[in-house]
Amino acid sequence: MEKVPMTSEGYIRLRDELKNLKFVERPAVVKAIAEARGHGDLSENAEYYAARDRQSFIEGRLAELEDIISRCEVIDIRKLKGETVTFGVIVEIVDEETNEVTSYKIVGPYEADISRGFISTASPIARALIGKRVGESVEVTTPNGAKVFNIISIAIA
């Protein structure tokens, strides 16, 4: 079984979602199905089919979350030194061509959210950055061609 790296914040977020689905969403959809059944003929009952679809989604997501949580390995980022780019650090880079500065937090695949600046350890840019130090340059192949980035800073989140 392959372990999945995760920050403690990511683990808590997944655990809370699991609890909500189990103890709030699942009972609510069971109640909705029971109410829809009480409306009579199921062959023309849109409420019943909508509730069953929602139940199917919830059960699938529960199975997925339980699998992820059983395989996650919570990494204590407070024990990191921040000398090189590793899991859990915030790295600030500059595009050497455009001088555009960007910050990314390196996280596990189930925590990645580019809108928040969280990139997965499996992403091309994270793979290029991991193990590098401040001042080093990395070349990353992007859909728009190769880009060269210089590491400005590394911080423990």
TrEMBL record:
<dbReference type="GO" id="GO:0003746">
    <property type="term" value="F:translation elongation factor activity"/>
</dbReference>
<dbReference type="InterPro" id="IPR023459">
    <property type="entry name" value="Tscrpt_elong_fac_GreA/B_fam"/>
</dbReference>
<dbReference type="InterPro" id="IPR006359">
    <property type="entry name" value="Tscrpt_elong_fac_GreA"/>
</dbReference>
<keyword id="KW-0251">Elongation factor</keyword>
<dbReference type="Pfam" id="PF03449">
    <property type="entry name" value="GreA_GreB_N"/>
</dbReference>
<dbReference type="GO" id="GO:0006354">
    <property type="term" value="P:DNA-templated transcription elongation"/>
</dbReference>
<dbReference type="InterPro" id="IPR036805">
    <property type="entry name" value="Tscrpt_elong_fac_GreA/B_N_sf"/>
</dbReference>
<comment type="function">
    <text>Necessary for efficient RNA polymerase transcription elongation past template-encoded arresting sites. The arresting sites in DNA have the property of trapping a certain fraction of elongating RNA polymerases that pass through, resulting in locked ternary complexes. Cleavage of the nascent transcript by cleavage factors such as GreA or GreB allows the resumption of elongation from the new 3'terminus. GreA releases sequences of 2 to 3 nucleotides.</text>
</comment>
<dbReference type="InterPro" id="IPR018151">
    <property type="entry name" value="TF_GreA/GreB_CS"/>
</dbReference>
<dbReference type="InterPro" id="IPR001437">
    <property type="entry name" value="Tscrpt_elong_fac_GreA/B_C"/>
</dbReference>
<keyword id="KW-0648">Protein biosynthesis</keyword>
<dbReference type="Pfam" id="PF01272">
    <property type="entry name" value="GreA_GreB"/>
</dbReference>
<dbReference type="GO" id="GO:0032784">
    <property type="term" value="P:regulation of DNA-templated transcription elongation"/>
</dbReference>
<feature type="domain" description="Transcription elongation factor GreA/GreB C-terminal">
    <location>
        <begin position="83"/>
        <end position="154"/>
    </location>
</feature>
<feature type="domain" description="Transcription elongation factor GreA/GreB N-terminal">
    <location>
        <begin position="4"/>
        <end position="74"/>
    </location>
</feature>
<keyword id="KW-0238">DNA-binding</keyword>
<dbReference type="InterPro" id="IPR036953">
    <property type="entry name" value="GreA/GreB_C_sf"/>
</dbReference>
<dbReference type="GO" id="GO:0003677">
    <property type="term" value="F:DNA binding"/>
</dbReference>
<protein>
    <recommendedName>
        <fullName>Transcription elongation factor GreA</fullName>
    </recommendedName>
</protein>
<dbReference type="InterPro" id="IPR022691">
    <property type="entry name" value="Tscrpt_elong_fac_GreA/B_N"/>
</dbReference>
<comment type="similarity">
    <text>Belongs to the GreA/GreB family.</text>
</comment>
<keyword id="KW-0804">Transcription</keyword>
<dbReference type="GO" id="GO:0070063">
    <property type="term" value="F:RNA polymerase binding"/>
</dbReference>
<dbReference type="InterPro" id="IPR028624">
    <property type="entry name" value="Tscrpt_elong_fac_GreA/B"/>
</dbReference>
<keyword id="KW-0805">Transcription regulation</keyword>
